[in-house]
């Protein structure tokens, strides 16, 4: 049990729990927060889960919690942990079941005010063209060979089939493909579940939003990212669907059995892990990369469905209907990355569970046109208030293994949220704020009510003030589509 | 749903869903956990109903793993058939092995997806009052 007194403020908006607080900890645990956000984090089991994460074999530096941290399973959501390669562990629970759940942002050359009269028409087209909700299959039905190819090539697989452009790939984290992916590491069951779900949004907190760019905080970086105030943009939030869930389920089971073999003792079975150098660790990593590639292909196909919807709904109304990719980021992933630790360059496996990579200027992983500034960091908020675009920083490289927050973070359980407001009522409320809503499930909509989340501006203020990423722009919803 | 001598209640969890399940026998505990999980998914009709039946045999290293395997298998089979399971016949064939037959109907779609059954904080034991009890977290 960790108390608030165990968290000592070591810098503005940064608290540290010493490894002396719990015998299981191998490194300190750090939380980026102000006093109010820290209080919220103490209300559920998030900090206890962070302390558990600090016990992973091979963990280096510190276990980190971003200001949107909240209770998950195994790792907290908003957690970051890096293990030293080659023998540090990889933990499927440190990635989560929705592998490479992530976000992409597209910008248009359409002014928000000019689009308003056509929002109903546009949202209808999007709702018709982008399969949404549980059990909705996509238009693609892949055979084993096609799916295997997709799993090893990611978003490029989709682009080659006409779903998008080469520029889309350049503006995707890892260019939409983790090269270590192996289709042979993915189980037959996971393959079966993935055959007809490419190009589908899914349900839960996944969404598609049409937003207005409401505020620019950094003109120079915004210009580099192609963001102009008053213009329309589109957010796509989804992941690797049933295939990713199955990859994680398979791996957690295998690693339960491997714990004794590698003499690993853990405070929570969901932290099950294996050394990256072990057959179990390596197989999971290769399968996870394949699932990550599946998620990128999924978002790439959806991108093209969005472009088609704009054409279908708005043809003849606007002279330019192009949608340009700003960027695409992962929120649930483990990556092999080079970082400087205690003055030495080391290779780490960085787990980001509900956290975003925030690489600063000059890193080769950042697309060439963004490299002088740092990578775009995409932070979706709740459907009533909007989202932020940030930029990665050198400070993040020094302090957080190049990581930052991923969203607002929940404060209410889904049941609480549903008790607070009915889906129909929420839709009416949002439409009163000139936000057009399309939802596959009204109860699902209610679970994602703005009141169920922390205020995104409070979360973003912390990462901006600590310098682990900086504000570039804020967007405001005009149309929301939920699974 | 088949009545069973067990019950479940939802426990607060910020991001996911957590159930406490209690029953007089281990068999009833597993059946009640399955009923709880499928209740969480909120089903709605999506097409013509057709009866469907599946048999399964599972073996695991311990009772907790067997419970995760049991629920995960049912989730997979529900997705595969587009089915909602209504009756669960289950018997233990060894201390940590079971055989089961489940029946339900196709033509149902859940409004809420259960992505996975987790091991987070998972414990399964007999309480002081003699009831079997477990707490299980679902990723939704």
Question: What is this structure's SSE topology?
Answer:
The complex is a heterodimer of chains A (483) and B (140).
Chain A: E1 7-11, E2 14-17, E3 29-32, H1 35-43, H2 46-53, E4 59-73, E5 75-84, E6 89-90, E7 102-111, H3 112-115, H4 119-129, H5 144-153, H6 155-160, H7 166-170, H8 188-194, E8 207-216, H9 219-225, E9 231-238, H10 241-261, E10 274-275, H11 279-314, E11 323-330, E12 332-341, E13 344-353, E14 356-357, E15 376-379, E16 387-391, H12 394-399, E17 403-404, H13 414-420, H14 423-432, E18 436-439, H15 442-447, H16 456-466, E19 470-482
Parallel strand pairs in A: 3-4, 18-19
Antiparallel strand pairs in A: 1-2, 2-3, 4-5, 5-13, 6-10, 7-9, 7-11, 8-9, 8-19, 12-13, 14-17, 15-16, 16-19
Chain B: E1 6-11, E2 17-23, H1 26-40, E3 43-45, E4 51-59, H2 63-81, E5 83-94, E6 97-106, E7 108-110, E8 116-117, E9 123-126, E10 132-139
Antiparallel strand pairs in B: 1-2, 2-10, 3-7, 4-6, 5-6, 8-10, 9-10
Helix pairs in contact in B: 1-2
Short description:
The complex is a heterodimer of chains A (483) and B (140). Chain A is an alpha+beta fold. Chain A has 16 helices and 19 strands.
Explain this structure to me?
The complex is a heterodimer of chains A (483) and B (140). Chain A has 483 residues and is an alpha+beta fold. Chain A has a single domain (4-411, 453-482), classed as tRNA-splicing ligase RtcB. Chain A has helices at 35-43, 46-53, 112-115, 119-129, 144-153, 155-160, 166-170, 188-194, 219-225, 241-261, 279-314, 394-399, 414-420, 423-432, 442-447, 456-466; strands spanning 7-11, 14-17, 29-32, 59-73, 75-84, 89-90, 102-111, 207-216, 231-238, 274-275, 323-330, 332-341, 344-353, 356-357, 376-379, 387-391, 403-404, 436-439, 470-482. In chain A, strands 7, 8, 9, 11, 15, 16, 18 and 19 form an eight-stranded mixed sheet that branches. A seven-stranded mixed sheet of chain A has the order 1-2-3-4-5-13-12, with helices on both faces. In chain A, helix 10 runs antiparallel to helix 11. The longest helix of chain A is centred in the middle third of the chain and has 36 residues, at 279-314. Chain A starts with 6 loop residues before the first strand and ends with a strand. The model of chain A has no long low-confidence stretch (mean pLDDT 95). Chain B has a single domain, classed as Archease, Possible Chaperone, Chain: A, domain 1 (3-Layer(bab) Sandwich). Chain B contains two helices and ten strands. Chain B has helices at residues 26-40, 63-81, and strands spanning 6-11, 17-23, 43-45, 51-59, 83-94, 97-106, 108-110, 116-117, 123-126, 132-139. Chain B is globular, with a radius of gyration of 14 Å.
